[in-house]
Amino acid sequence: MNLSRRNLLLSVCLHGGLVLVLWLVAKPHTLPEPPPVMQAMLMPAGGAVLPAPQPALPADAPAPAPLPEPEPLPPPPEPAPPKPVTPPKPAPEPAKPAVKPPAKPETVKPAEKKPEKQPPKPRNEPRIDPDAVDSELAEVEKETQRIAREQAEQRKRDALARQQALAAQAADEAEALAAQAAADARARQMAAQIGEFTRAIDRKIKSVWRLPANVPAGLTTEMRITLLPGGEVASVVVIRSSGNPALDASAQEAVRRASPLPVPSDPALFREQFKVLTLKLKSEE
Questions:
Q1: Residue 252 CA from chain centroid, whole number
Q2: CB–CB of 152/159 below 8 Å?
Q3: 3-class DSSP assignment, residue 92
Q4: CB 3.0 to 4.6 Å from 226: which of 120, 186, 234, 271, for a disulfide?
Q5: Closest C-alpha to 194, from 264, 260, 261, 255
Q6: pLDDT tens column, 18-69
Q7: CATH class of 133-285
Q8: Residue 118 and residue 34 in contact, taking contact as beta carbons nearer than 8 Å
Q9: What one-character DSSP code corresponds to residue 98?
């Protein structure tokens, strides 16, 4: 209720001030003099019509004509009764704003001060000594020549080392080839000796072999013969029979009768090829 009264009084004061300002602005400072006809129509408070003031005329001017009498004014209308003033409706109370919790103050980090760039200090240009420059150039030239000589010597040493390595490799290859050739020659010699002594042993045994009667042709007896270094027969064993016991027995008897058999004098060759000998005898022979 107090708020409504306060608003009403404030509205009335504002309207009154506005009317006063308009009146002061619209009011003329000096009123003009009314014309004669209007001056004649002005009435005093009692309702009588006052004569308008006459201007002064010159002496030789003719007399003015008399003015007609003014007609009486109609009575003023009765004032209308004042309208009843309805009091303004009280303004609704404004809604109370929702109270929000105060926001947390943001912590403002102080700005880091960047180090001011200091102007570069003027450098003292060193004084160039021509003699010192020539001396340094001479030293550089001498060092360059020394490095070139060392590189040339190193290249020579590398070339010599490569030549020596190639020569050694060639010598090794030649030696290997010679050894291989010698081995091949020895192998051929051993093969020739083995073949020669094998044929001699076969001829000697067959020369004393006495075939039994009524033995069909085409039967083969295979025997394993063990020899001593001088060619003597240590043992003879039939490892594959011919199917005819008489033929097998006659073959064993022929080996014993032919002892000693011809063998090579080389101990290594005898040990590898003739110490244990396998021999086959056929009946048709």
A1: 89
A2: no
A3: coil
A4: 234
A5: 264
A6: 888 787 766 555 555 555 545 545 454 444 444 544 555 455 555 555 555 6
A7: alpha beta
A8: no
A9: P
Dihedral angle of Cα 265, 268, 272, 278, to the nearest 10 degrees: 10
Q: Is the pTM of this model over 0.85?
A: no
Task: Record the tokens describing residue 199, joined without a space.
Answer: 């044929």
For residue 158, give both structure tokens: 């590398």
Domain ranges of the chain: 133-285
Q: Answer whether 209's CB lies under 8 Å from 285's CB.
A: no
Burial class from Cβ neighbours inside 10 Å (0-12, 13-18, 19+) for residue 215 reads middle
Compute the residue count for the chain: 285
Cα dihedral sign, 157-160-164-169: positive
- How far, in Å, are 23, 87, 218, 248, 279 from residue 239 at the CA level? 164, 155, 18, 10, 10
Q: Are 282 and 230 in contact (CB under 8 A)?
A: no
Q: Looking at residue 231, what DSSP letter applies?
A: S
CA distances from 43 to 38, 141, 250 (A): 10, 138, 202
For residues 214, 219, 221, 222, the Cα torsion angle rounded to the nearest 10 degrees is 170
